[in-house]
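Table S5 (text form). Sequence records supplied for joint modeling of the two-component complex.
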Amino acid sequence: MTAVEPPLAMLAELTHRCPLRCPYCSNPLELSRASAELDSETWKRVLGEAAALGVLQVHFSGGEPLVRRDLADLVRHAAKVGLYGNLITSGINLDAGRLAELVEAGLEHVQLSFQDADIVSGDRIAGLLGSQEAKRRAARLVREAGLPLTVNAVVHRQNLDRLGEIIELAVALGADRLEVAHVQYYGWALRNRAALLPSREQLDAATAAVEAARTRLAGLLVIDYVLPDYYAHRPKACMGGWGRRFLNVTPAGKVLPCHAAETLTGLDFPTVAEASLSEIWYRSSAFERFRGTDWMPEPCRSCERREIDWGGCRCQAFALTGDAARTDPACALSPDRELLVGARADANESAPDFVYRQHSAASHRSPDLVSSPA
Amino acid sequence: MTAEPRLPVEGDAVLRFAPHTRFRFDEVRQAWIVLAPERLMLPDEQAVEILQLIDGKRAVNDVIDELAGRYDAPRDVIAGDVVKMLQDLVDKKVLRL
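The corresponding structure-token record, covering 471 residues in total, follows.
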């Protein structure tokens, strides 16, 4: 087995608090409360440990990272230790003063989410009235501040037909890059799968729209687009392989190989309070568990693509089969393929209502979730 | 808003790194890296040599001459490789004309 290389990037999930309620949110079903979040000093230590370990880019994310009052402090510290700082935001409540503070602190790039090109539909998907107008304002501010802008659009059954308009929106907003991300089905999205999974016809039209736009907009707008697992023949190398490229720190300080890994049961993910990032990366049993190829079952184990796709996504394998150590059913060679392919039939039924992301019903809702943008 | 045409990399073009793009040496890996929005590249030795000549002053032709001299290689072979790589990085918005 080849030596373990240092991680390239870290997702710093500063909080689970968010003004939006998107029904495909990648946060876990069990959301962390503000009181459980790591404090500024701990985050700064973690950023320093990340840089020393070899992390090159840090993505400040959430939830909505702007709800953290110490965000600029953390961005400044990241720049100081040599990390390339990226902000992944909904843009709600971003104003010129806050952005100037972040630019001064050394922020390099903003990734701004849009739920649709259509404002009414976008507000409905985001679960917040006025959100899409607020995002357009945020995009203008980012461009005026001279920062590179990536528009992120999560696409699914209820907005995929407008992908052409989403591309035009990204151009009109002056974005450098558009990331078109198909919903990944675990956590909230799996709960909403029947409302979100597109049909083959929708997908083919969208893919054609992307290909045409890429040619027309070459040099103006870069479009990142990957075919969704539910219609793919081979799985994706999720996170570039478990514990190979990437680590994620949750609001409460758990260190994960990907942002969805908490959905896996039976793995003990260490926290930043228990060990350094380096110890966790190189020595924890959770990061070792699915690293490389030794853990693989057939058909992965003898597959010539085993070091290309690394067996696909462990979270998807677990969500569909109940066993994280099985081949990702996104692979046509998986014995569990039918679990995934069977769900495509839902795309021809009428879409059920969304189950919006929210804190668990047993506890009080955070005020952040019900406030509207200023 | 009308889309601008694609920017072709030609011999007299002068390229520079786009704002918020960093080309630096990483001490942990002992290797050169390119950091850009949503991109992270670990260029191979040949690419590093080309990128080290991108300074906002040299024209693409000068870069090709320099490399052709360094390796005593046919200029058109070098030119093909250099222009192809630079065009790709301009399309990805890592470099600017």
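Note: Chain A has a mean pLDDT of 93.
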